[in-house]
Amino acid sequence: MKKKPLSFDKDLFKRSVLYNVKTLYRKTMEEATPQEIYQAAAYAIKDAIVDHWMTTQKAAAEQDPKIVYYMSMEFLMGRAFGNNLINLQAYKPVKEALDELGLDVNLVEDQEPDPALGNGGLGRLAACFLDSLATLGYMAYGCGIRYKYGMFRQQIKDGYQVEVPDTWLENGNPFELRRSELAKEVKFGGYVNMFTDEYGRTIFRQEGYQVVRAVPYDLPVIGYGNGVVDTLRIWDAEPIQCFQLDSFDKGDYQKAVEQENLASQLCEVLYPNDNHIAGKELRLKQQYFFISASVQTAVQRYLRNHDDIRKLYEKTVFQLNDTHPTVAVAELMRILMDDYYLSWDDAWDVTTKTCCYTNHTIMSEALEKWPVDLFQRLLPRIYQIVDEINRRFVDQIMRTYSGSAGIDVQAKIRSMAILYDNQVKMAHLAIVGGHSVNGVAKLHTEILKQRELKDFYEMMPEKFNNKTNGITQRRFLMHANPLLADWVTEKIGDDWITDLSQMDKLKDFVNDKKAQAEFMDIKLKNKQRLAEYILEHNGVKVDPKSIFDVQVKRLHEYKRQLLNILTVMYKYHDIKSHPNKDFYPKTYIFGAKAAAGYLTAKLTIKLINSVAEVINNDPDIKGKIKVVFIEDYRVSNAELIFAAADVSEQISTASKEASGTGNMKMMLNGAVTIGTMDGANVEIVNEVGEENAFIFGLSSQEVMEYEKNGNYNPMDIYNSDPNVKKALDMLVDGTFSKDKELFRPLYNCLLNKVGGNRADQYFILKDFESYLEAQKKISDAYADKKRWAKMALMNTACCGKFSSDRTIQEYVDEVWHLDKLNVEAK
Ligand code: GL7
Question: Where, per the database record, does this protein carry N6-(pyridoxal phosphate)lysine (predicted)?
């Protein structure tokens, strides 16, 4: 039976916008600025949301479902306005209402800053998961931090990245609710006083600490068309009391100042590192801050209508998004033992049944390890608990393996202990302290089991499982690509919106000439839309009829933007030296932020921009290739880019990209992948068929063999392959920069050992030729219009598996065991 769409009162909305403009700004519509109109409209939408939000809370209070707390340092939500409208099924009426008021919905949407409380894939995954949880009707809280400054805004000046603070809260956030009545205290430092109380119990009390007040802000997460509204709860820090004279009187002036400083610093800024840990003290404080507040809240919520804390896990699950929230394990133990007097064994039983951990990377620089002295100084009671968890776990290792033939027990301890070499190993704590460990794509999970976490897997295989990532089709098709979304609905109906496996039905159309033409026409329109954006932002005119070849993602050596640009450099040379050779026009589109301190990544950005400058202005090239670097790549412009991509560049060194999710977003929008057999690419190829993707390069097995044996020598390739030599030499021969030494560091990284790293750590030279070959195949395929249309359509038709709805349902069925909420949708 077809569900009735949610109701939305268009006239009420209109009146509400006018009223808000008046009461918020004392202005008429004519006088109001675009930003003020956006705010007025957003508040009007929030009114509609709040009703559903209250209904959801009421249903939850009555039905008492199990709740998942998705704990994450990052939620890369992107703009809320358009997405909220889509999920409220109110996009069209609001568009009409704004039209009638003489306003363009796109311009109103453009006034919203991108909430960028995340770096990249990991943070965006958390946002997609919340969308799916609400859409599937599960009760969920995202728990995170309300950073004052999110991911920095990127400006390109003279080809270099410049970081500018992201002041996303400058005009306030109309969708949030400040919940000061739910504030919690979080304690840092001091020491632990141990004594026996009047009942003979051993009491551990933290004393001499600093304390901050954690204040939650709630953001609504709207399910698609079902009236369910979940909550993203992000915490801000405030000093516990404003500057207090009495503490001054007591001689605590110093402490009062320190507490105030701590509070003002805690949530200032998101660390802008992707797949890399900076190891800063403030970061550990951020982690404990939002975890302590969230765990306290979850326990209190449970106790609102249950009295046996030993059964917390029946109604509560904590999913730890990477190791960043892992102190949750020890914090829950602390609360259970110190506040509710559970024995160690009882507390441990509850904790391990409540916590689950997702691993998102095998990059060694991303492995979180804290120095013991820092950890102990900042979190003295938590450290005691971690120490005891470790002691018992090491005991368990010894019991398991002592006396087993051929097993080196000390080696097992070395590889698995939580405390070792004066470090606290957060991944180990997360594995030991929970009941589920998952990787984010099949290949990644296999690598965890067979290599990175082999010893853990052997000791506790039952904990390990795979959950291949997914993305939400509501944002990345409905909102990003309305033309294609409408076309799909016209062909197969609209069930795909909440069941992406329906896309399979598009397979009936892949050989249909009319459908092919329509599909490619939509792609062309989206390319025109992006071309306008590029002209406006880069001042570069690109040809929408050329192949749009896109690599947008964080800049990281393992993602190999350098491989991509080196082949562009090579082709530039090739065209210059063979001016009459046939060449299908191509536009290379890059977008990437580099961590502020990551010099190689920043130099790669400069290189891309320098290459763009030379090629785009060289009359000999006759527009056969253009290179564009899109400034400030973020969720909002990503939506335009995905819709317009012909070719999806997914070229990480095999074994390094845990999953990738941009690959899925491009596939959904009908882009064809050129990629390595890495992360979720493997599963994409499996769905779409090898003939509809362009796969090249070393396999993960081969990469790992080379890494183990240390027998890779890029210099041999440089000396024997003239194409590779040419491309590399162009880095240092002045073609792309007057200063020939400017790009020398990149050249050196590829040919020599640098700072303890192997030469060409990411096998760029090794994969160069097979990458060129794959690109050649792409140009040939694209030249055959029908063939390309079929391939592109097949990609959209085969993307069903990659919805985050599927991922979330797997978590629910296999790990979380949540109950569906029953909400009367109005
Ligand atoms: C990442 C992985 O690098 C990426 O491949 C994956 O898709 C994503 C979500 O699981 O997680 N791991 C990581 O540390 N970051 C990622 O984006 C920052």
Answer: 665
E-only strand ranges, 283-329: 316-321
**Same domain, residue pair 424 and 332:** yes
The helix (H) or strand (E) run that includes residue 202 is strand 202-207
Residue 681 CB–ligand 1 contact under 6 Å: no
Do 771 and 697 touch, CB atoms closer than 8 A?
yes
Residue 228 resides in a domain: yes
Edge-to-edge strand list for the sheet holding 647-650: 625-629, 586-591, 547-552, 647-650, 672-675, 694-695
| Neighbouring residues of 258: CB distance < 8 A, sequence distance ≥ 6 | 210
Joined tokens for residue 654: 């095999």
**Mean pLDDT confidence for 598-607:** 98
- Residues of the domain holding 612: 486-695+761-802
Paired strand residues for 218: 177, 233
CB of 274 closer than 6 angstroms to any ligand 1 atom: yes
Q: Which residue is it, tokens 């600093």? A: 210
Q: Which CATH number covers residue 558?
A: 3.40.50.2000
Number of neighbouring beta carbons within 10 Å of residue 30: 7
* Per-residue pLDDT reduced to its tens digit, 276-303: 999 999 999 999 999 999 999 999 999 9
Q: Which pLDDT band, with edges at 50, 70 and 90, does 242 fall under?
A: low
Most distant pair of Cα atoms in the chain: their distance: 94
Residue 333 parent element (H or E): helix 327-334
Q: Cα dist. 160→463, 550, 590, 596 in Å? A: 46, 20, 14, 11
Mean pLDDT across the chain:
97
Compute the distance between CA of residue 819 and CA of residue 821 in angstroms, rounded to an integer: 6
Which segments of 689-784 does DSSP mark as H helices, in order? 700-709, 714-720, 722-729, 744-751, 764-783
- 272 within some domain: yes
Please identify, by atom number, the ligand 1 atom nearest to the C-alpha of residue 660: 7
In a domain? residue 291: yes
Q: How far apart are CA 680 and CA 694, in angstroms?
A: 14
- Say yes or no: 579 and 625 in one domain: yes
Q: Which amino acid does the sequence have at 327?
A: V
Question: For residue 275, which atom of ligand 1 is closest to its CA?
Answer: 14
* Best mutation site among 275, 664, 684 for ligand 1 pocket (most ligand atoms within 8 Å of CB): 275
Does a structural domain hold residue 669? yes
264 and 348 both lie in a single domain: yes
**For residue 433, what pLDDT is reported?**
99
Residue in this structure with the two tokens 């592109």, named with its chain if needed? 792
- By CB atoms closer than 10 A (0-12, 13-18, 19+), residue 72 is buried
Query: Is the pLDDT score of 1 beyond 80?
Result: no
Residue with tokens 């990052």: 74
Question: How many domains does the chain divide into?
Answer: 2
671 and 638 within one domain = yes
Q: Is the pLDDT score of 431 beyond 70?
A: yes
Same domain, residue pair 493 and 459 = no
Residue 246 confidence (pLDDT) above 80: no
**Same domain for 215 and 265?**
yes
Task: Write the ipTM.
Answer: 0.98
C-beta of residue 500 within 8 angstroms of C-beta of residue 476: no
Let me know whether 521 and 444 are in one domain. no
Residues 259 and 133 in one domain: yes
Cβ(119) – ligand 1 distance below 6 Å: yes
For residue 661 and ligand 1, the question of a CB distance below 6 A is answered with yes
CA of 125 to the centre of ligand 1 (A): 8
Question: What spacing in Å lies between the alpha carbon of 658 and ligand 1's midpoint?
Answer: 6
Q: Is the pLDDT of residue 26 over 80?
A: yes
